[in-house]
Amino acid sequence: MQTLEDQRAEFICKSGRFLAFPLAGAISWLLVAIAASFLEERTAIYVLLFSTGAIFPLALAIAKVTDQQVFQKGNPFASLMGLSVLMVNLMWVLHFVLLFRFPSVAVLSIALALGLHWIVFGWIIQSSVGIIHALLRTALCTAAFLLLPHSPVSAVSAAVVACYLITIVQLLTHQI
């Protein structure tokens, strides 16, 4: 029987450090930032909704091509990661309420909520990368939202992309 530490090591190894997800996130949010530069805010928000909804399937495609095992039946760390993603996705109720009442605030809400699972991921891999991602994402997205109120979609999206790029570098260079 495997120890918990053995299962943690197996999760990290098989998942390929979960690189498929920040890669997919960076691609999706970059597309939003670019689209938002050319579209009016309401249309850009729809692009944001579709693009963020595409992160998971895009990550699965990247994982398949790069041989990263996202789903690992019987591994408690994979189960915990799945539950944290579920937790983040339960916030879509709030995002949709904000979309109807305060659309530009929904942009910030989506950007922040979709980064919360990084805290759990960092704990799983015993690295500060998750906490750094979540804190940096919160700070940069909030600053972008407040400092560039006339272009919240492109500003917040650019902040998320910056966070993903930093996280990707950390995941590639950090000893895990």
Tell me the β content. Answer: under 5%
Q: Please, how many helices?
A: 10
**Are there runs of 5+ residues with pLDDT below 50, and where?**
none
Question: What is the CA-atom radius of gyration, in angstroms?
Answer: 16 Å
Number-wise, the strands total 0
Can you tell me about this structure?
- The protein is mainly α.
- The chain contains ten helices and no strands.
- The protein has helices spanning 4-15, 20-38, 41-53, 55-65, 76-89, 92-101, 103-113, 117-124, 129-147, 152-173.
- The longest helix has 22 residues, at 152-173.
- The chain is elongated, with a radius of gyration of 16 Å.
- It starts with a helix and ends with a helix.
Features:
mainly alpha; 176 residues; single chain
Summarize the structure.
The chain is an all-alpha fold and 176 residues long. It is built from 10 helices and no strands.
